[in-house]
Specification:
- The protein has helices at 13-40, 47-73, 111-120, 157-175, 206-221, 237-246, 294-318, 325-343; strands at 134-135, 152-153.
- By secondary structure, the chain is an all-alpha fold.
- The chain has a single domain, classed as Ferritin.
- It has a two-stranded antiparallel ribbon.
- α1 runs antiparallel to α2, α2 (47-73) runs antiparallel to α6 and α7 (294-318) runs antiparallel to α8 (325-343).
- Mean pLDDT is 89; it is low at 138-148.
């Protein structure tokens, strides 16, 4: 297959598989930062913030499921993907979109953390016919694709998915229904997930694949640039986080979305954000930070082991055992109790700094 443009990066099924694996890595890379900020909020405080961050984390899990459904539908082999040593990033990290203007780390709930979350969920409109990738400012080649120019990067996650969608269309024109050669039994369908995070889409053809990827795009940044809501007429992730910066809710008119609030102009109820009602946890901790502290060291090891086990169970569900997904996802929020063994405890000799969970071994 020849590309019509130099920077059409997906030109083969192998490229498509690679990008869909990167999509799963992107969706997962946001979950530990969101969970860590959530854990750091002291019980009984910042109820609004807790609910907002938790709702986004739940939808990131949905996005991971949808990306896996597309990957399985086009014949990808999910084994050794989520369970790979490289699937959990080393924080702080840049996202696999290739952009290097911000890094994503593990830290407490704070204005700076919310700024990072806004950068994760940011959007950018690209005119039709214009390239959706831009020149990469450095040689930090996080998204190296075979035979693809490593100088390109995607400003937003939405543009990253736009390239996957473009690649799907192009490959379908060449291959037709043969592109969707995956076993339908590997699909996660609605009976294997739960309500509240959005629709689970069984991917069996081009139409359902585009629906799944478009849902991921829109829940993050909205259905149309310049609006605050997605195709389900719910507030997008970006503007959910923006509420925490402003201390005020946006209003979405679900009956007539055009009557919704405009970006940066919320009109809903105000609420207080107490940035001090958080545990002062260590940013981007490593297991070695707890050397010499047996209890904290043991708690950190146990959390990391449980988190790796959680990902392994998710992978098992994606690998033809969909009935195991619901209890596996439920385990994500049970991790909070293990995290509390760390976040509520100061690190001796660290001047009021508390421990924090680690997701990957040093």
């Amino acid at each position: 297959m020849t590309s019509s443009q130099e920077n059409d990066l997906i030109q083969s099924v192998d490229d498509l598989h690679f990008y869909l694996k990167q999509a799963m890595m992107i969706e997962h890379a946001t979950i530990p930062p969101y969970m860590t900020a959530l854990y750091s909020i002291k019980p009984g405080s910042n109820i609004e913030a807790f609910q907002i961050i938790r709702s986004v984390a739940v939808e990131e899990m949905l996005h991971l499921v949808l990306a896996a459904n597309v990957y399985n539908a086009v014949g990808g082999d999910i084994r050794n993907t989520l369970s790979s040593d490289e699937f959990i990033p080393k924080y702080p990290t840049t996202l696999p979109t290739g952009e290097t203007d911000f890094k994503v780390g593990l830290g407490k709930f704070s204005p700076e953390t919310i700024d990072t979350f806004l950068s994760i969920e940011r959007s950018k409109e690209v005119d039709e016919g214009q390239p959706i990738v831009g020149p990469r400012p450095s040689q930090n080649n996080l998204l190296a694709v075979r035979d693809a120019n490593p100088q390109y990067s995607f400003y937003s996650i939405g543009l990253f998915y736009a390239e996957i969608i473009r690649g799907l269309y192009a490959l379908y024109q060449e291959m037709g229904d043969d592109l969707f050669c995956g076993d339908p039994q590997r699909q996660i369908t609605p009976e294997y997930y739960y309500d509240g995070a959005g629709d689970i889409i069984k991917v069996t053809d081009l139409t359902s694949a585009i629906r799944a990827l478009t849902m991921i795009q829109e829940q993050g940044e909205g259905s149309v640039i310049g609006t605050i809501y997605d195709a389900e007429r719910l507030l997008s992730h970006y503007y959910r986080f923006d509420q925490l910066k402003r201390g005020q809710y946006y209003i979405v008119d679900q009956d007539n979305p055009s009557n919704s609030d405009q970006p940066n102009q919320p009109t809903g109820d105000t609420f207080a954000v107490d940035w001090d009602a958080v545990y002062p946890i260590k940013e981007n901790p490593k297991l070695s930070d707890y050397s010499g502290e047996p209890e904290l060291h043991s708690a950190a090891q146990e959390f990391q082991s449980a988190y790796s086990d959680f990902l392994a169970k998710i992978e098992y569900a994606f690998d033809g055992h969909p009935e195991t997904l619901l209890p596996a996802v439920g385990g994500m929020f049970k991790l909070k109790y293990q995290a509390e063994r760390l976040i509520k405890n100061p690190i001796p000799g660290r001047d009021g700094m508390n421990a924090a969970p680690i997701y990957r071994l040093d």
